[in-house]
Amino acid sequence: MGEDALQVSQQFEVWANLVLAWVGFGTLTGLFAKAIMPGRDPGGPIATLAMGIGGSVIGCGMVTLLFEGYQVSPISPIGFVVATGGAFFILFFYRLLSGQVVDEAQPMAPKRMRLYNTRRRASTRSAHHDDY
Questions:
Q1: Residue 78 in contact with residue 72, Cβ under 8 Å?
Q2: Alpha helices by DSSP H, 37-110
Q3: 42 vs 51, 56, 77, 111, 116, CA distance in Å?
Q4: Can you tell me the distance from the alpha carbon of 73 to that of 58, in angstroms, rounded to the nearest whole number?
Q5: What span, in angstroms and rounded, lies between the C-alpha atoms of 37 and 81?
Q6: Any idea where the domains of the chain sit in the sequence?
Q7: Res 53 pLDDT > 60
Q8: Mean pLDDT across the chain, nearest whole number?
Q9: What are the pLDDT digits (tens) for 104-128?
């Protein structure tokens, strides 16, 4: 019975190390993707972690898909690069779907033109008001 408990303990230690490595790696890749993407960053630490882990799955999966027979270990220097690319991809599409990249509700006129039109309307109203 003692031998089984030792084996379970060793297996638990291996899994705990693996989970902690993925948490650290996912956080680093998520933070790096947020650092290179301009603008405000949505989500907190859990979203950053999930984005980093998801980015590593997407990045390493794309390398395996595009280069047949070539596999990348996610926790390696090249794995960090492709994981950051995958996290960047996730962050870009999150912003795209949430409307932070393109806002269709806003008119495409330059800000200066809108201010000019507002002032013109205000001065026209006051001129008509003086006539009465």
A1: yes
A2: 45-66, 77-98
A3: 11, 19, 26, 26, 34
A4: 13
A5: 15
A6: 2-131
A7: yes
A8: 77
A9: 555 555 555 555 555 555 555 555 5
